[in-house]
Amino acid sequence: MITLSSDFGTPYPAAMKGVILQDSDARLVDVAHDFPRQDVRTAAFWLREVLPYFPPAVHLVVIDPGVGTDRAAVVLRAGDHALVGPDNGVLRPVARELAGGEDGIEAFEIDLGDPASSTFHGRDVFAPAAALVHEAGIGEFETREAFAPADDLVDLTFPEPTVDDERATGEVLVVDDFGNAITNVPGSILDGRYGDHVTVNGERAPVEPTYAAVDPDQRLVTVGSHGNVELAVNRGRGEAAFGVAVGDRVAIDLD
Amino acid sequence: MITLSSDFGTPYPAAMKGVILQDSDARLVDVAHDFPRQDVRTAAFWLREVLPYFPPAVHLVVIDPGVGTDRAAVVLRAGDHALVGPDNGVLRPVARELAGGEDGIEAFEIDLGDPASSTFHGRDVFAPAAALVHEAGIGEFETREAFAPADDLVDLTFPEPTVDDERATGEVLVVDDFGNAITNVPGSILDGRYGDHVTVNGERAPVEPTYAAVDPDQRLVTVGSHGNVELAVNRGRGEAAFGVAVGDRVAIDLD
Amino acid sequence: MITLSSDFGTPYPAAMKGVILQDSDARLVDVAHDFPRQDVRTAAFWLREVLPYFPPAVHLVVIDPGVGTDRAAVVLRAGDHALVGPDNGVLRPVARELAGGEDGIEAFEIDLGDPASSTFHGRDVFAPAAALVHEAGIGEFETREAFAPADDLVDLTFPEPTVDDERATGEVLVVDDFGNAITNVPGSILDGRYGDHVTVNGERAPVEPTYAAVDPDQRLVTVGSHGNVELAVNRGRGEAAFGVAVGDRVAIDLD
Fold this sequence. Notes:
3 copies of one chain form a homotrimer. By secondary structure, chain A is of the alpha+beta class. Helix content of chain A is 20%, strand content 30%.
């Protein structure tokens, strides 16, 4: 199985699929091709949330603002999975998740010779590399000469929140398609508080387990499916109602 | 085969696919993941139009504004198909279509124990349930303990038009991506009238079998692929030209 | 393998998939369903760029502003591929590419009897025809009575640029989702000029092999993955920065 993630929109992902299917009859599963353009950080967040739900697979990831520059093309083996993409950090958070920590990650640089283009390595480098990893096997692809051990990879980490008994301070990591503002604050701070209120950036809001627990268009603070605190509106957009955007500080007072 | 329908956008559907593929190697086919947010009625219309074209399949449907509340999670067996989703009516119109009427539907409530989240039952309840129905078989999944007979399901019906020899009165059920306003008036009222005119909400418009039968940007009344009367514009948006939106009354005078 | 391309958005493509899967267990691969509405020319461009990357396949293409009129429904055999769609030119450029020229194309008209609708031949004509071609075999489908030799097909060609040692003059063929303005000028005019400048419509711009070779928001002229000259902006929209739209003239002075 090969999953595909990119910021390409259409129809460029289809060219990647064609290239893969020249070399492999793997099942192909799209994760998303509408990740925000060249936004390595947001893609890294979503990949960490979604890819661990898959059975062992090769994951092709092309969010690649540095295409054609000297940034490396890499494969990370993490647990039973392999991640194929540019060395710009986009693969690291999910690799740590899949490998159970940094030490479990094995990294390899891809060298398939000169690519046909300098502007579409998704098609000319990463897709054939993903097919090759799939055909060679996630556990042993490095026996192929296209792969050499790599180190000094670019890293990407998400900020850590500060949490004490009275207050949690973090930031908005992403806003999802529904308008839910997903923070880096662990949902556990809301344990036992459903039905109560907290104060978010100075304004009180109810804590509820579900969106529909409040009336339509009303704000709530909940624990999203990722396990983090989420600022939401029932049938509306939480990021607008709470007045926050990606990167904005979120202070939650628990009293 | 498992089809997937939701209002999730991306990348949440990929998490559902990962969960399914942990338990099943079913073919997965996306129906749509951009159904209007939390609009049970519109999704119900489209599912009724599209799913009957599939061979026997498990259809996973997650338009679920009440996620995490006490609304039930259900499977409806209808003909050779099984429909998996929330008990909010979204499955009923297509179930009636597939089962040849209400009496042919068999309903089961899903109980997989406490889900991992209260905000993403698509991933934590419906996806594993769909995989289980698929693996157990559409004809016999209820032998698994996760499924118990259900009754008193939430219903959803579309309004009936009134039709006589001179006039048909109905409403706009949905507007498709092209801007075609699809009504609940049966296309049969236009039998033998191609090339003639009718009066729609007081304004005359030509009746034609195809969009291109009128000049670009011109209005027409036609029979859409669903068999209903459709208000359209050749290479334009019918809902704007006819001044109608979903739910608006449409009176068609036939003289 | 059957690929699918249309301007349908959702959920109409799912109806085509259901119909195909009634008759075939072919692998289905989406190319794009968000091609610009009824824009035969743009779809023809993209299909020519993308489909040649696929292994032998049946390619279902439904950009069909003349649906239901007397435009023919056709299959073009081109190399090891078959292209199924309306006879409006959309299939011709890619057919020439796949067949190695016009002479390699074999054309057949589809006759499956009266279709169920006059407004959705994607579902009622092209999808069953694609399944039939797939099941019968790309090399011998014409033995089935649904297919008869066709001639006098509608053609579609892209304008030719004029190129000499000092200047290339062409036009913008399409703008991709990133905002890159893709011209019909061959990229070979930029050979040996990376790091230099050219003058595009009177304004100087750097020639670079990669987007990231210039600072964010800066313009560049490059060779896109299609091999043509592309007007781009690093992390921005080239068509806006260069002030061009599809069909606009592009004059590139090389001195």
